Recover the amino acids of this structure.
């Protein structure tokens, strides 16, 4: 039976044509909600086609809506193809439009999809230092316009909670995109699936778990009020592993998940020689009651039985891409 935490079961999902947006549009009805999709692109999951930069358009989309899940954004791969002003318009001004119109419409719950990219320079330890243990207590140090605008949008959410009483939860998601890695040297050195499975140790989540975190945030938002949460697969590592992760990650992984060596050997896969950061999802599991399924051990068990390591939801959605053109040197411009 659906819970009654919202006066209206209609939930506006911005970015509904995107990867996470589609996942939410597919998932929310199973929790008793009626999602309404907003996106600048037409799609089978978009009822309102337009830009969140258009305040009048945003206002018109909020009729009979009980909550907003704001996933629409310009992403890191757009940094080369879009101007800084484009990022400010979409990621900051667009978020402000949604927040202001949410308050004006009496909407009480706002879930904002942010990114672990806000941590920026804090993710790269100095030479000789151990790997970074990334919790919500780490101070963001964004290193590009994408991270800067996401931090600014987070701060707007905090402002509207403090000054207007809007329940705002921020989910800092790690990698869940299915596209190839943005670094050519990584694409050249490892099979794509090898890269992604490695990342479940410290910096990746499956889209099914990311969507379920958003559902839990919707359910808990009113009681929590405001909070920031890292959404990533549960790591097997502890703080005691951080020094060794920088020098010989394979040894550390073997200590925690020894079966990986056998599974990897059948595919001629390799572990990364070094891991420089570990995302920690403990706060999201504790406070949201979130129970992610797809961690490194789970995806290994799927591989061992010949199954796809991705959830059925991830397989159904497939790849969206970030650009409408193909670039000569890979999936992203340089």
């Amino acid at each position: 039976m659906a819970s009654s935490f919202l006066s209206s079961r209609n939930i506006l999902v911005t970015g509904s044509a995107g990867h996470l947006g589609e996942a939410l549009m597919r998932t929310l009805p199973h929790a008793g909600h009626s999602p309404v999709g907003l996106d600048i692109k037409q799609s089978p999951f978009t009822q309102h086609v337009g830009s969140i930069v258009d305040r009048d358009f945003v206002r018109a989309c909020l009729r009979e809506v009980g909550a907003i899940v704001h996933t629409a954004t310009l992403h890191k791969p757009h940094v080369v193809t879009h101007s800084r002003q484009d990022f400010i318009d979409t990621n900051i001004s667009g978020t402000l439009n949604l927040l202001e119109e949410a308050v004006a419409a009496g909407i009480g719950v706002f879930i904002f999809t942010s990114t672990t990219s806000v941590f920026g320079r804090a993710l790269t330890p100095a030479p000789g230092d151990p790997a970074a243990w990334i919790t919500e207590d780490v101070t963001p140090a964004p290193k590009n316009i994408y991270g800067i605008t996401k931090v600014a949008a987070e701060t707007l959410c905090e402002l509207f909670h403090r000054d207007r009483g809007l329940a705002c939860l921020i989910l800092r998601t790690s990698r869940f995109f299915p596209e190839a890695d943005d670094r050519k040297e990584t694409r050249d050195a490892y099979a794509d699936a090898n890269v992604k499975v490695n990342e479940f140790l410290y910096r990746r989540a499956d889209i099914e778990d990311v969507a379920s975190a958003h559902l839990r945030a919707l359910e808990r938002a009113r009681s929590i009020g405001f909070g920031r949460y890292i959404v990533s697969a549960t790591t097997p590592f502890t703080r005691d592993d951080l020094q060794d992760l920088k020098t010989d990650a394979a040894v550390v992984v073997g200590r925690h998940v020894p079966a990986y060596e056998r599974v990897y050997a059948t595919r001629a896969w390799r572990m990364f020689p070094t891991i420089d950061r570990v995302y920690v999802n403990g706060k999201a599991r504790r406070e949201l009651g979130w129970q992610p399924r797809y961690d490194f051990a789970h995806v290994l068990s799927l591989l061992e039985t010949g199954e796809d390591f991705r959830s059925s939801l991830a397989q159904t959605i497939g790849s969206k891409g970030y650009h409408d053109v193909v670039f000569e040197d890979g999936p992203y411009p340089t």
